[in-house]
Amino acid sequence: MAGSNAQDYIKHHLGNLTYGELPAGYVRECDGRDTQTLTESTWTFACNGNEAKDMGFAAFHVDSLAWSGGLGIIMCLLFWMGARKATAGVPSGFLNFVETIIEFIDTQVRDSFHGKSKLVAPLSLVIFCWVFLMNLMDLIPVDFVPGTFSWIMTSFFGWTAQEAYFKIVPSTDPNITLSMSFSVMLLVIFFTIKAKGVGGFVGTLTLHPFEASNPVLKALLMPVNLLLETIGLLAKPVSLGLRLFGNMYAGEFVFIMLAAMMGAWQFIGAWPWAVFHILVITLQAFIFMVLTIVYLSMAVEDH
Amino acid sequence: MNINMTIIGQAIWFALFVFFCMKFVWPPISRALEERKQKIAEGLSAADRAERDLELAQEKATANLKEAKEKAAEIIDQANRRANQIVDEAKEAARTEGERLVAKAQSEIDQEVNRAREQLRKEVAVLALSGAEKVLGGEVNQDAHKQMLEQLAAEL
Known about the structure:
The complex is a heterodimer.
Chain A: H1 6-13, E1 18-22, E2 27-28, E3 36-37, E4 42-45, H2 49-54, E5 59-61, H3 62-84, H4 93-112, H5 120-136, H6 144-156, H7 174-206, H8 215-262, H9 266-300
Antiparallel strand pairs in A: 1-4, 1-5, 2-3
Helix pairs in contact in A: 1-8, 3-4, 3-5, 4-5, 5-9, 7-8, 7-9, 8-9
Chain B: H1 6-136, H2 146-155
Helix pairs in contact in B: 1-2
């Protein structure tokens, strides 16, 4: 375990492995190392939370990106294997499983999305399965992978244990969830413009919710409408991303607290929470997908 | 919980996976599902059709059977009637034939009897004559006694 007490332990578990740019003249104060002043801006791994913060926007959460990408690749490969075996005849075991998921997604999309699009169904498939897999990492005991990572880095690469941040649940990283939700927002804008034209898109932002038939009044109401609608447009992805993040972060936090309090006995406390958490994992993936479909559906339909 | 370029990285992952699924996963599987749905629908309608055909065939078969039975009954009836007729005809023919034979035999018998009676009559006349000759010891003139002899023969 990395931290000397419970607080440090929890803090360490909530930190991401961050690779980013530290500016010139930055004073690095890492535990277990000499203080070092950078002569020029450097790309490096942050050795503590402060450094990660000081890196600002020019940084990557390597663990989040690696796990989300790895899980996504596994998901795509599994589906691809299923798709290659796809046949109109009697499906085999694995194809059955893939088809069940596809049909489930297809039903959801058909129920909620009434436009015609080749994108929405695969998009929903990716969102549901990918988010589910990312959430599923929550069920791996909290020290299992980070501990292994820490051991490898300290044994073979000369890192200190404090430096070896590692989070394996990408959806407890707001970057990941907000990235997906804002991608969805861009798609919503794209769908709106495609369905109603640029004028129509501007119209949805400026002509509602206050409507007027008098042109002067209309022009007067436009700024108000624009403000409200812009807030509404932005509130969707923010709530979508933060909902998933909040749920998963809270779940992960409980696991970490249980681990911090109970040590090796954490499984006794974590097991009931894990059982309950299975529900949250699936539900949040499902909600993210359904809301995406609904937002896109709203984009192509008239109010 | 810093917001940083991870957002862009994740968006790239997202776009890649969505693109991959849109190109290589969703179309083949949904096409296969669609084809299977169609196949099953065709199979079901074929089964329906077959069932209807079977019903029709059964109805037809029943009707045919009924017709055949009726025809058979008719034929049997006809045959019976014909047989009766034939028997009747045969009986009639046999009776007529019998009657004819009987009549013929009767007439033959009658003829024979007549013939025998003639013969006898002639022989009796001769016998009577010779008997009378012997009794009388003399000759009987045949011409003289002709009338008497004929009378005798007629009485026999």
